[in-house]
Specification:
The protein is α+β, with helices and mostly antiparallel strands. It contains four helices and twelve strands; from the N terminus they run H-E-H-E-H-E-E-E-E-E-H-E-E-E-E-E. The protein has a six-stranded mixed β-sheet, covered by helices on one side. Helix 2 packs across helix 3.
Length: 258
């Protein structure tokens, strides 16, 4: 019996020694910055600044710029369309077809066949969309915010392309902003990018919910403003503006985390 017991103890000792020699997992260095799993380039453009009759060559020139800037998601405000009129170039259909992108359009107004609205174009799959109007805001007339959910791979991202009532007070604009940042189809989502003629939050109103992209929040620049909901799941990496025939293109680069 003794040799067997000795053998068992030898095996146990060997196991303990092997455990003690195993490498111990090391934690990330304190203060080390996480690297995003996906880097996404999103742009915004105000079509209302385009005062010419739209031709296909205009869309082709814009597409060249979008490819140069490696844009993957584009929000456009104030698009004008003439559905069913073959003699007019349709911005949404032509850009979607030539870029091979998905698109979503939210109508704001339709008078005698002249349609205005907002759109979101995406190289990623579009999961759902909702056109949020502002009927309960006194200063609003036909303005709206198009909410689009995009499958960005590791997580869904909500992109809002909106027009705010220009004569609304700052408080009314904030109500519209909060409506647009609360998607109807994904109640729990807080990963939202909002673009359009947004108000500067300043210091008077709590900014716990939103983070401004400072480069685009100065009035009079002619660049669509960009805001992000405060969320550790994504981070602003860079921001810039690019000249196009349609006006200034606001470009933001976001890093997405799980």
């Amino acid at each position: 019996m003794k040799p067997r017991i000795h053998k068992r103890y030898s095996i146990l000792l060997l196991i303990i020694v092997s455990w003690s020699c195993s490498p111990v997992p090391t934690k990330e260095e304190a203060g080390a910055e996480r690297k995003p799993e996906i880097i996404l380039n999103i742009a915004s453009l105000n079509y209302a600044d385009f005062g010419k009759r739209l031709e296909e060559r205009h869309v082709n020139e814009l597409l060249k710029i979008l490819k140069q800037e490696k844009i993957e998601v584009l929000a456009v405000q104030g698009i004008v369309r003439y559905p069913g009129l073959a003699s007019r170039t349709d911005f949404v259909n032509v850009l979607s077809s030539k870029a091979d992108w998905r698109s979503a359009f939210g109508e704001m107004m339709n008078i005698s066949g002249r349609q205005t609205g907002n759109a979101v174009f995406s190289s990623y799959p579009i999961i759902s969309q909702y056109n949020q109007t502002f009927e309960n805001i006194k200063a609003a007339s036909f303005e709206a915010g198009l909410q689009v959910a995009i499958d960005a791979g590791i997580r869904s991202l909500i992109v809002v392309s909106m027009q705010l009532p220009p004569k609304a007070s700052k408080e009314e604009k904030m109500k519209c902003l909060q409506l647009a940042a609360s998607p109807r189809f994904e109640k729990n989502s807080s990963t939202v990018v909002i673009t359009g003629n947004l108000p500067s939050l300043g210091t008077a109103i709590s900014t716990d919910l939103f983070t401004e992209v400072p480069q685009f929040m100065t009035t009079g620049k002619g660049i669509p403003a960009v805001m992000l909901t405060s969320n550790p799941s994504f981070k602003l990496l860079a921001a810039r503006s690019v000249n196009t025939e349609f006006g200034k293109l606001a470009v933001v680069q976001l890093g997405l985390f799980r």
